[in-house]
Design a protein that fits this description.
36% of the residues lie in helices and 24% in strands. It is an alpha+beta fold. It has two domains: 290 residues, Aminopeptidase (3-Layer(aba) Sandwich), CATH 3.40.630.10; 116 residues, Alpha-Beta Plaits (2-Layer Sandwich). The structure holds (2S)-amino(hydroxy)ethanoic acid and manganese (II) ion (2 copies).
Length: 419
C-alpha cells in the first residue's frame, strides 16, 4: 500500500475554522472556549459547516431520524459493508476546539488525502458526525450513537428534555436535522475514532499516540433532594431540613468512597448542584444535583452505586422530613475494543515510528456504542496542559493532531482492504 500522509496545515485550518463556531470568552479561564451545546443554534452552525465540507468532497450525505450525519464515499465493491470513522461536533458549555472536532475533521482530512491521491478503497467509507455525544444538555451521553446502534429507543430519545423543557424531537426539527433515514439500521464493517485523550497519560510519558483498549463504565444519576425552606436566622438548627446540607454530605461521601479504595479506581463528580430558592437568607428547600461516577471495573461500579444508594437511605433516616429521589440518567458498562482494531492502530503507529502505548478511555465516546455492532477502536492524541478537557484550555498541537490523523488514515485504509 502506497505511503500517504495527510495535509497537516489543511487539517489545522479546518480545526481553527470550526473552533470559531460557538467561540466565547470564558471569564473563569480568561480564554476563548467553544460552546456548541447539542441541538443549539451553534451546533446547527457547526453541523452546517461540516456538511458543506462533506459536499465539497463529493460525499453523499444522509441524516438519520436522530440527526446523525453520514457522509459516504463509494468503494470499488459496493456490496461490502463500509468502514465508518468520525466523532461529534457538539461540545460542553466550557469546551475546547478538539473534543469531537478532531475526529470529525480528521476523518474529512483522511478523505481529502485519498481524493488527492486518487485512491479508491475496496470497501466504501462513511464519515459519521453523531448527535449529542456530550449528553450535558438533555441528560444522557453518546445519545445519537446509542440510538443508531439500538441501546436507546428513538421515541425515548425524542422525549428527553433540557432544563427549559425543550425536547430533543422538537429541537432536531427546529435546527433542520431531524432526518428521514431510519435509525438502528447501519452496521459497518468496522468503526474507528480519533479523539484527544482528555487526560495526562500520553503527555506525561512523552508519547505520540494512544492505542485505546476500552472505555470505562459510566453511571449518571440526577438527585432531587427535598427538605424545607425556612428562615436562615430564625430557624434553630434542630428544626432544619436543609437540602443544601444533604447535597454537601453526599458530595463528601462520594470523595470518601473514592479515597477508600474499596471501589477500585472509582471517579465521582457532583457537576450540578442547584439549590432552590438559592437565596442567602433561605435554607434550601430543594436541591437538584447530579452524580457522575466512572470505573474501569464493572463490579467496582456496581458496588459504588449500591453504597451511594445505602448512604442516601441513611441520610433520609437521620433527618426527618428529608426526601431524596435518585433517577438514573445514563449507564454503560465497561466496553472493550476489538483486538483487530487495537493492533491495526498499534501497527500503524509503530510503522510510522510514533511512540505509543495501550490505555483505557477515561471519557465516554461514540466508539463505545458502535463497538456493540461491529469491530471498533480508537486512537488518542495527546493534549497539552496535562490533557485538560471540558475546559477552554484544551489544546493539542499540530504535530499531535497530525500524527494521530495519519494513524487514522493508515487504519482506515487497512480496514477498507480487509475483505
Ligand atoms: O462524559 C463523557 O465522558 C463524554 O465527554 N460525553
Ligand atoms: Mn468527545
Ligand atoms: Mn466531551
Amino acid at each position: 500500500m502506497k505511503e500517504l500522509s495527510i495535509n497537516r496545515d489543511r487539517l489545522w485550518s479546518h480545526l481553527s475554522e470550526l473552533g470559531e463556531i460557538g467561540a466565547y470568552h470564558d471569564e473563569v479561564a480568561d480564554l476563548v472556549g467553544v460552546r456548541r451545546l447539542a441541538l443549539s443554534d451553534e451546533d446547527r452552525a457547526g453541523r452546517d459547516r461540516v456538511v458543506a465540507w462533506m459536499r465539497e468532497l463529493g460525499l453523499s450525505i444522509s441524516i438519520d431520524e436522530i440527526g446523525n450525519i453520514y457522509a459516504e464515499r463509494a468503494g470499488r465493491d459496493a456490496s461490502l459493508s463500509p468502514v465508518m470513522f468520525g466523532s461529534h461536533v457538539d461540545s460542553v458549555p466550557t469546551g475546547g476546539r478538539f473534543d469531537g472536532a478532531l475526529g470529525v475533521l480528521g476523518a474529512l482530512e483522511v478523505v481529502r488525502t485519498l481524493n488527492d491521491a486518487g485512491e479508491q478503497t475496496t470497501r466504501p467509507l462513511v464519515v459519521g458526525a453523531f448527535t449529542d455525544e456530550e449528553g450535558c444538555r438533555f441528560g444522557t451521553d453518546m445519545l445519537g450513537s446509542a440510538v443508531a446502534t439500538g441501546r436507546i429507543p428513538l421515541q425515548q430519545a425524542y422525549g428527553l428534555t433540557d432544563r427549559d423543557g425543550l425536547c430533543i424531537g422538537d429541537e432536531l426539527e427546529r435546527i433542520g436535522y431531524k432526518g428521514k433515514e431510519p435509525v438502528n439500521q447501519r452496521r459497518p464493517h468496522a468503526y474507528v475514532e480519533c479523539h484527544v485523550e482528555q487526560g495526562p497519560t500520553l503527555i506525561r510519558e512523552g508519547l505520540d499516540v494512544g492505542v485505546v483498549t476500552m472505555v470505562q463504565a459510566i453511571s449518571w444519576h440526577e438527585l432531587t433532594i427535598t427538605g424545607r425552606s425556612a428562615h436562615a436566622g430564625a430557624t434553630p438548627t434542630s428544626y432544619r431540613v436543609d437540602a443544601g446540607l444533604a447535597a454537601a454530605r453526599i458530595n463528601v461521601r462520594l470523595r470518601e468512597m473514592v479515597d477508600s479504595g474499596e471501589f477500585g479506581e472509582l471517579r465521582a463528580t457532583m457537576g450540578v448542584n442547584r439549590p432552590h430558592p438559592g437565596m442567602i437568607n433561605v435554607i434550601p428547600g430543594r436541591v437538584i444535583a447530579t452524580v457522575d461516577m466512572r470505573n474501569p471495573d464493572d463490579d467496582g461500579m456496581r458496588r459504588a452505586e449500591q453504597a451511594l444508594g445505602r448512604y442516601i437511605e441513611e441520610l433520609q433516616e437521620q433527618t426527618e422530613g428529608l426526601r431524596i429521589a435518585l433517577r438514573r440518567t445514563a449507564r454503560t458498562d465497561v466496553v472493550p475494543f476489538a483486538e483487530k482494531v487495537r493492533s491495526a492502530v498499534e501497527g500503524a503507529a509503530n510503522d510510522r515510528g510514533l511512540s505509543n502505548r495501550r490505555l483505557f478511555a477515561g471519557a465516554g465516546h461514540d466508539a463505545q456504542e458502535w463497538a456493540h455492532v461491529c469491530d471498533a477502536g480508537m486512537i488518542f492524541a495527546p493534549g497539552e496542559y496535562d490533557g485538560i478537557s471540558h475546559n477552554p484550555r484544551e489544546y493539542s498541537n499540530e504535530k499531535q493532531c497530525g500524527d494521530s490523523i495519519d494513524v487514522l488514515l493508515d487504519v482506515v485504509r487497512r480496514l477498507a482492504e480487509d475483505v
